[in-house]
Amino acid sequence: MISTPILETLAYDFGTSVEHVRNALEMIDAGLSAPFIGRFRRGQVDLMSESGLRRLRRRRTELEDLDRRRGTILRMLEKEPSVTPAQIQEIQRCMDRFELEDLFIPHRRPEPEVQLALDRGLGALADALVAPIPKAERVALLGTDAEEKDEDNDGDGDAPNARGSQSEDAPAGGGDGRAGEAHAAEAHVGEAHAGEAH
How far apart are CA 11 and CA 14, in angstroms? Predict the structure, then answer.
């Protein structure tokens, strides 16, 4: 049996009446295919097309999953004394799964490890560890080294260009040195041959 809120939501989404939605879903549940309903039972489903019937079936499944999730959330909130009747009604009326989870977030219980840390008073410590340290406090704690490191980080943008220019110049200088050594060796060999000839 399809609940009335689901039928009303489907009728609103597809721009038709609740009766036509009920007829379409009853025929789908009875085993009739979307092409058959779209061709031979169009009058009972407000001329809904085959693709529209398939989308209707998928959307009905999504809403049924949402309804089960809502039931789980409501059962969990029954044990929470801080939940107000207005919040319960808002969850009952919600027909969007993302909005439903957003409504449940304030009442969600933390993981056991997190709850244990909170019970031991470590929540403030965790917030302090992830909080950014202002530059003035960082300099006061670490001295001038922290400020020099910040300045070095700011100037690192020019460093790759300087290294790149050095690496570009290096092969040229190295090549000239190797060429000079080769010419010197050839000259030495030539002098040796000339001495043997005399």
Answer: 5
